[in-house]
Amino acid sequence: VFIAQSRASGSHRDVEDEELTRIFVMIPKTYTEEDLREKFKMYGDIEYCSIIKNKTTGESKGLGYVRYLKPSQAARAIEECDRSYRAILAEPKNKSSESFEHDYYSNNMRQDLRGHTLPFCMQPEFCGFEKTETRIQEPVSKRLSVVSRLPFIQEQLFALFDLVPGLEYCDVQRDPHTNSGYAVIQYSTAASAIYAKYKLHGFEYPPGNRLTVIFLEDGNDSSE
């Protein structure tokens, strides 16, 4: 595999610094920078490792960077490391880290859903559910409540729930006293809402922050 550089990219070393030698990985929150270095040193000479932390609490976000001396070493790490690390080439430093982290979360979550998605059918139910799973005990509706201990960003939450077809609106609210996240989600059909709750209740977004998803009364007959 050869990695080409644009003629407009400046010096070769600049391109390596920005695009070819830094990888971005998903790691356990217990990892230290030394743990990260120990796991990835087998693929080449590491210039530095860094772990992304919450600016407020100082806790690890479960994400990190590994910078190698050579592009070939970074490429080898991406190809050979365990798939659970979700290793990719990092974006250049001139791109917002928050934007890059959000894209990374969204893309990986999209892959997770594609890998485990239950197939949609032409009927209002999803054919992948077992019969026992369709006998839902709680009243169902097209509207969901989503609660998180961290505040939501409207665009990010919308993108997350829009992975399930039929999203009509996403209304994010914030409690000024607790700074927790609260949102109301509505789908065009109860089937989509059931599926969203089934897949996203307990989902960690961002990693380490579990979402609580429950049905909200939408004024319609739940037996329908």
Notes on the protein architecture:
- By secondary structure, this protein is α+β, with helices and mostly antiparallel strands.
- Among the domains are: 15-89, Alpha-Beta Plaits; 143-215, Alpha-Beta Plaits.
- Helix content is 31%, strand content 22%.
- The protein has seven helices and eight strands, in the order αβαββαβααβαββαβ.
- The chain has helices at 12-20, 33-40, 71-80, 97-116, 131-134, 154-161, 190-200; strands at residues 22-26, 46-53, 60-68, 88-89, 143-148, 167-174, 181-187, 212-216.
- The strands form two sheets. A four-stranded antiparallel beta sheet has the order 2-3-1-4. Strands 6-7-5-8 form a four-stranded antiparallel beta sheet, with helices on one face.
- Residues 21-95 form the RRM domain.
- Keywords: Repeat, RNA-binding.
- This is RBM45 protein.
- It comes from Dicrurus megarhynchus.
- GO terms for molecular function: RNA binding.
Q: Would you summarize the structure shown here?
A:
With 224 residues, the chain is α+β, with helices and mostly antiparallel strands. Helix content is 31%, strand content 22%. The chain has helices at 12-20, 33-40, 71-80, 97-116, 131-134, 154-161, 190-200, and strands at residues 22-26, 46-53, 60-68, 88-89, 143-148, 167-174, 181-187, 212-216.
